[in-house]
Amino acid sequence: MLTHAMSFLSDLTLNNDRTWFRAHQDDYLRAKAEVEDFVFGLFPRLGLERGSHPASFWFHRIYRDTRFSREKTPYKRNFSAVLGAEGKKGPAMGAYFHIEPGHESAIGGGLWAPEPAVLKKFRLDMEDGPRELERIVGAPEFRAHLTLMDGKKLKRVPKGFAPDHPAAEWFK
């Protein structure tokens, strides 16, 4: 499963330049199709429908924007997609799929960079206490298959919420 995609990405990691990429365009298209088929196969289980949207509605492009970066390799070394009803453009809850060689693959879920109103609504919904969310993420079935990642978060509880609130860590 996804063997061609992983093989292509491994080769791309070693040969990340335009000349090599052009010479292996067919391999890229085959790898991309393999990943798209896999991800679209997940849609029924996630309650999503592809509808008439093109793959680009969900998938990120492989080309890097190097204009303001010190690292000038032209291609990303991964395939990734946002799996939500609004695709990669929406601020809604969704899942994130990322495949990359070297044990860097991941599937995640949640809100990414939500707009202030959406974030405030989440925090207000949690104000009564995070019992239900903690019950879900603490369940043995959850822990057997998934790991919570401790990514970027605020140093302090946001204004308007007590630092000792039961949901303080979730607010951050």
Order of helices and strands: HHHEEEHHHH
Return the average pLDDT rounded to an integer: 88
End-to-end separation? 37 Å
Q: Going across the major beta sheet, what is the strand order?
A: 1-2-3
Q: Output the structural class.
A: mainly alpha
The major pleated sheet works out as: 3 strands, antiparallel
Strand content: 5-15%
The outline comes out as: elongated
What share of residues is helical? 40-55%
Number of helices: 7
Give the beta-strand count: 3
Q: Which quaternary structure do these chains form?
A: single chain
Low-confidence runs (pLDDT<50, min 5 residues)? none
What would your notes on this structure say?
With 172 residues, the protein is mainly alpha-helical. It is 40% helix and 9% strand. It is built from seven helices and three strands; from the N terminus they run αααβββαααα. The chain has helices at residues 3-14, 18-23, 25-46, 116-126, 131-138, 140-145, 168-171; strands at 79-83, 94-99, 106-110. A three-stranded antiparallel sheet has the order 1-2-3, with helices on one face. Helix 1 (3-14) packs across helix 3 (25-46). The longest helix has 22 residues, at 25-46. The radius of gyration is 19 Å and the shape is elongated. It starts with a helix and ends with a helix. The mean pLDDT is 88.
